[in-house]
Amino acid sequence: MSLETADADAPADTAGGAALPGTVPEALRAELIAFRRDLHRHPELGNQEFRTTAAIKERLERAGLRPRVLGTGTGLVCDIGTGTDGGGSGRDLPFLALRADIDALPIPDTKTVDYASTVPGRAHACGHDVHTTVVLGAGLILAELAQAGALPRPVRLIFQPAEEVLPGGAADAVEFGVLDGVGRILAVHCDPRVDAGRIGLRTGAITSACDRLEVELDGPGGHTARPHLTTDMVTAAARVAVDVPAVISRRVDARAGLSVTWGRMVSGHACNVIPQHAELSGTVRCLDLDAWRAAPDMIHAAIDEVAVLHGAKPQIHYVRGVPPVVNEAVSVQLLRDAMVARRGVHSVEGTEQSLGGEDFSWYLEHVPGAMARLGVRPPGELSRHDLHRGDFDVDERAIQAGVELFTAAALLAPH
Fold it and tell me: Is the same domain home to 385 and 363?
């Protein structure tokens, strides 16, 4: 897959009939492909992205920019340009932030390509290497525009670590101050259901909340011949696994999409011994922000009720993950206008709300913004390699599309 012919079918860059500056030159396209492939060969897990951070920093500095490494030691923030409102008041304009996540996943890369991961058990199987390359490419073009006095507002690049680590590195980035002075924030996420050269947009919630739930149950144990004299721990664990999701489904509006799903249940060591201990772990996912905020208390109460009914003593470990990403309408329209200006009306499609979690949501707790689905499927290909699989890959024409999207957004963004 390559980007060499990426703009063969792209329309002229127009916005309201006037040409937009900031196109992607051929040399930069090739450089960005090489940069993405280098990241892909050297994936790093959350909060361990030292090589990735160094590579981004070196390229930004070579462009005359001054990136700052985040307080966690990985990830960067980099400002481009300054600006006032142009009306004589001297009011500083807020930054438009462009965010990328830079970490990889702890799974093996199973592809047979020359840029496959060289690190055993590590892979960029979610497309963060593409997100990073897109924001870097946009930053390099916007830096040139700023030097020429053609950037109408300041832009902040955020290269965030540890998106895949609950509750997500975005919370640490916010604490570091990456949103200080930011008026709006934009991001993309690779989507293998959308063709390269296109984006998917949705106003409102585009992802779900995702939390982790761990439950320990304890009882006296005993002989399987006399379950009536003790706590039948296996049955108690089974009832928690089955009944708690059912109870929750009757205590929250079904439209909230609150779902408790177990991924692990362990208890016992012998067929004739009632165990003293059982463990369950799973996830809590929710489509609605208000329901997500109420979920911990509701789930604690349901587990307590079911466990006590069966004579087990519960210990509940509820680990907050991320709220839903809720796209703000003005930011969605900005992304739509930017993509249409670069590639025409047929380059934008609607998208459904996903049950996946994304820590971009933490930024949206503080400033308005939106995330677009960046198409990475080769046009015309019916099969797809889904996210979080070792064979996941992208059509690299998506890189240019993402760079065009962000550069146009920076030029069209309202003050």
Answer: yes
